[in-house]
Amino acid sequence: MTNQFQSNTPIYLQLVNNFKHRIVSGELTVGSKLESVRDLALYFEVNPNTMQRALAELERDGLVFAERTTGRFITKDKELIIKMRESVAQEIIDQFILQMSSLGFSNQEAVNLFIKKIEERSV
Q: N or C: which terminal CB in the chain sees fewer CB atoms within 10 Å?
């Protein structure tokens, strides 16, 4: 897989965000087993130490847990995933508001454009 990592953010943080997105979207299912650090590093074309750092961060967040002899797994805590999903959504909304504000849109104008776009997509 060829990854397009951004140079302004550490790669391990980009990997953390990638995994968070895949977990909260359901692409990585509750309790599913992750590949080994080495296999994930090969897939993402990163150093195994970088992948290890990303997985350690996910463990600190509670999204991944390790079992000594069997590997790493996605959390079974559905409430945590729901909370993380809402947190990720809030971050996206905050970014949207900041960007629209920087373009000179009022809150109401931004909401109106957002609703219009949603309505276009549902057709």
A: C
